[in-house]
Design brief:
The chain is an alpha+beta fold. The protein has two domains: 218 residues, 2-Layer Sandwich (PmbA/TldD fold); 223 residues, no CATH class. The chain contains nine helices and 19 strands. It has a six-stranded antiparallel β-sheet. A five-stranded mixed beta barrel has the order 7-14-15-16-19. A five-stranded mixed β-sheet has the order 10-9-8-13-18, covered by helices on one side. α1 packs across α2 and α3 packs parallel to α4. It is globular and about 70 Å long. The protein starts with a helix and ends with a strand. The relative contact order is 0.13. The mean pLDDT is 95.
Length: 447
């Protein structure tokens, strides 16, 4: 459906809500269509094509709000939706912090972003990609089984409007391909690994053969893993693992956690959280960024900002509600779905690369751990305590040697952040990215 038509639907729905007694209202509609396939051991295992969408309405009556959602867009259904939302709002407790943006807060002009691929990818094309991907993985010597190769394509339309006069609609797309395989035998030991690629434009994906070969090589490389003794050592995080450290920061500076007082960084604004050699940047308008968007879900402008500037924490991630709780200005970080209220969320975030190559970063390590994968969710966001299972390789005299498993790495994120050193190998691959990272003095629990 043309985006103008989606905005017309929202405008009519907001009028119905106000007619039913709402003092303020906003609405969102998200339509999408997608195709996904999975291929395993030379056979098509899964093929799915979907198309649909939801419309969500939030109404405010005084300091009370209610949210309802529906897939039915008939005039009768929308009228009933508006009436039900207002009736619900009148029965819920008051929230002193809710409310729409003031007219002077709303974005006046928005960037045009390159986030939608006009080329639709067919199921036949996806099938050819996963065939090539899995074949390349199975061709790696030592790979003995496949957990499958998958590929997908999707395109979505999002429209947002509110009773203060804000309207915005945009389209976005995404494609992905992945492979997961098993190496080894039950008698001698088995290992599994994967690789994947995702992008706004299908043409920006890595070649299927490259992804398959990489998945197979990763699995084979882990065969013969050993245990190591418990000790304190420097730990090198591969980019696939280090991006999780940035995600822990984003959770800790989320306005909801700060307002509740449940973040280990709740008193850290304006202080040195990382070493002065670390800068972490958010760029919601990145060219073909997988999380790029022209504004936030409440109609506020968003912009590129340094969340951490030379080690100093500069901001929280705030929507309107949390900004009012904290008596601060909103930062344009609101996100929402059809059936949920706005809440703070980041877009494209990355840790800037450092000055040392990954090889140079580990050159002086006599004994240490190179982490490629992390297991479990052992992170306490209230205290910063960190404890996760790790898989990787042992570093000896600056060189990566044998594979290691069945170890746990532990520390506290406050100290880990302060002792974190990034390498030069930053790549923009996902919504959260980081280069190889070194952290000294971590506790390793092994045999």
């Amino acid at each position: 459906m043309p985006t103008d038509n989606l905005l017309d639907i929202l405008t009519d729905l907001i009028k119905l809500a106000k007619k039913s007694g709402a003092e303020q209202a906003d609405a969102i509609v998200a339509d999408g269509r997608s195709v996904s396939v999975t291929y395993r051991m030379g056979k098509l295992e899964h093929l799915e094509r979907s198309e649909g969408g939801d419309i969500g309405l939030r109404v405010l009556v005084g300091k009370r709000q209610a949210i309802v959602a529906s897939a039915d867009r008939s005039k009768k259904a929308l009228a009933e939706l508006a009436e039900r939302a207002v009736a619900m709002a009148r029965t819920v407790p008051e929230d002193p912090f809710i409310g729409l943006a003031a007219p002077d807060q709303i974005a006046k002009s928005l960037p045009v972003l390159d986030i939608c691929d006009s080329v639709e990818i067919s199921a036949d094309t996806l099938i050819k990609r996963v065939q090539a991907c899995e074949a390349a993985a199975l061709a790696v010597k030592g790979v003995t089984n496949s957990e499958g190769a998958s590929a997908s394509w999707g395109r979505s339309q999002v429209a947002i409007a509110n009773s203060a006069g804000f309207q915005r609609a945009y389209e976005s797309s995404g494609s992905s391909i992945s492979a997961s395989v098993i190496a080894g035998t039950a008698k001698k030991g088995m290992e599994t690994d994967y690789d994947y690629s995702s992008a706004v434009y299908a043409s920006d994906l890595r070649d299927p053969e490259d992804i398959g070969h990489s998945a197979g090589a990763r699995a084979v490389r882990k065969l013969g893993a050993r245990k190591v003794k418990s000790q304190k050592v420097p730990v090198i995080f591969d980019p696939r693992a280090s991006r999780g450290l940035v995600s822990h920061l984003l959770a800790a500076i989320n306005g909801s956690a700060i307002a509740r007082g449940t973040s280990f960084l709740k008193d850290a604004m304006g202080t040195e959280v990382f070493g002065p050699w670390v800068t972490i940047i958010e760029d919601p308008h990145r060219h073909r960024g997988v999380r790029s968007k022209p504004c936030d879900a409440e109609g506020l402008p968003n912009r590129r900002r340094q969340l951490v500037d030379n080690g100093i924490l500069t901001t929280w991630l705030l929507d309107l509600r949390t900004s009012r709780q904290l008596k601060l200005q909103p930062t344009g970080h609101a996100a929402r779905g059809a059936s949920s209220p706005p809440s703070p969320s980041a877009t494209n975030v990355y840790m800037a690369g450092g000055v040392h190559t990954p090889t140079a970063l580990m050159a002086d390590i006599t004994e240490g751990l190179y982490v490629t994968d992390l297991i479990g969710q052992g992170v306490n966001t209230l205290t910063g305590d960190y404890s996760r299972g790790a898989i990787g390789f042992w570093i000896k005299n600056g060189e990566i040697t044998y594979p290691v498993n069945e170890v746990t790495i532990a520390g506290n994120l406050k100290s880990m952040f302060k002792h974190m050193t990034p390498a030069t190998d930053l790549e923009f691959l996902f919504g959260v990215d980081a280069p190889t990272v070194r952290i000294d003095g971590m506790s390793l629990a092994g045999k």
